[in-house]
Write a structure and sequence with these properties.
- By secondary structure, this protein is of the alpha/beta class.
- Helix content is about 35%, strand content about 25%.
- The strands form two sheets. It has a six-stranded mixed sheet with strand order 6-7-8-3-9-10, with helices on both faces.
- β1 and β2 form a beta hairpin.
- α3 crosses α4 and α3 packs parallel to α6.
- The radius of gyration is 19 Å and the shape is globular.
- It starts with about 25 loop residues before the first strand and ends in a 5-residue tail after the last helix.
- The relative contact order is 0.17.
């Protein structure tokens, strides 16, 4: 069964619930995750609007990574986890029966903590998903260049597209992973601590890339770095012990937090 904006050879879904009338791209309702008898996430309800960059912050072990992995069904790759509640993409519950997780991950891409480049050329790394979709050669070439431009990497690699991706620096490899995710035209991009292993200069370039991309797509950035959330996002959500404590515009949340737990964390008085 197809996702709402998926039109290639699949039956269109039934009418979605009235959750995205305001233009919300991604949303959760009562989302929970358990590992056997242990609750990792409890009753998470949050909306992600289009063309925005939301930072997910909170102490280690609060469920940030598990949460972001539920948003494109990556939790299914971790044995022993059970998901309850709903995750809506353009109004359709991605956990509904008949939804193909491959299509979910095409529209909701993910970039991980460490660059995961393939042992092939720069060009073929970006083209990988397009090859799986059997796109024509001219489309592949066009989309590879476009994705490298959008990831801020084109000018640095345009003369070395046939070189091994592993020859790139760590920061370039991470932007290459972003380009690979963008090549299949996602509407949402998830990043799990995507700059934590990078030096400050590379981190700055990735953040600049994300700022540009946030004018086109919805970005959700898990970060342990409060300063990064403050400077890179327009919305911030604070998680604590598997619960969503507060979410709002970044400037408002950092300057006038509504919850004491949020204030303690962002001012460094936590714990």
């Amino acid at each position: 069964m197809a996702l709402p904006d998926e039109t290639r050879g699949a039956v269109r879904m039934s009418a979605p619930p009235p959750i995205s009338n305001d233009g919300t791209v991604l949303a959760t309702r009562g989302l929970g995750v358990r590992a056997r008898q242990h609750a990792i996430l409890t009753d998470i309800t949050i909306d992600f609007p289009p063309r925005s960059l939301t930072a997910i912050i909170g102490p280690s072990g609060c469920g940030k990574t598990t949460f972001v992995r539920t948003l494109n069904r990556m939790t299914e790759t971790s044995p022993g986890l059970s998901v309850s509640g709903e995750v809506f993409y353009l109004g359709q519950n991605i956990y509904a029966r008949g939804i193909n997780p491959v299509l979910v991950r095409r529209r909701i891409g993910m970039v991980f903590q460490r660059p995961t480049v393939f042992p092939m050329s720069v060009f073929e790394n970006v083209a990988f998903g397009l090859r799986l979709e059997h796109e024509p050669a001219d489309v592949v070439e066009e989309e590879v260049q476009r994705s490298l431009e959008r990831s801020g990497l084109w000018e640095e690699v345009k003369n070395r597209l046939d070189k091994p991706a592993l020859s790139l620096s760590g920061g370039q490899q991470q932007r290459l992973c972003i380009a690979r995710a963008l090549a299949v035209r996602p509407r949402v991009l998830l990043l799990d601590e995507a700059t934590s292993s990078l030096d400050p200069a590379s981190t700055q370039r990735v953040e600049a890339t994300l700022e540009e991309l946030s004018h086109e797509i919805t970005i959700i950035l898990v970060t342990h770095n409060v300063a990064q959330a403050a400077r890179a996002s327009d919305r911030t959500a604070y998680f604590y012990q598997g619960r969503l404590i507060e979410v709002g515009p970044t400037e408002e949340l950092f300057e006038r937090p509504k919850e004491k737990l949020t204030e303690e964390y962002i001012t460094g008085r936590f714990g």
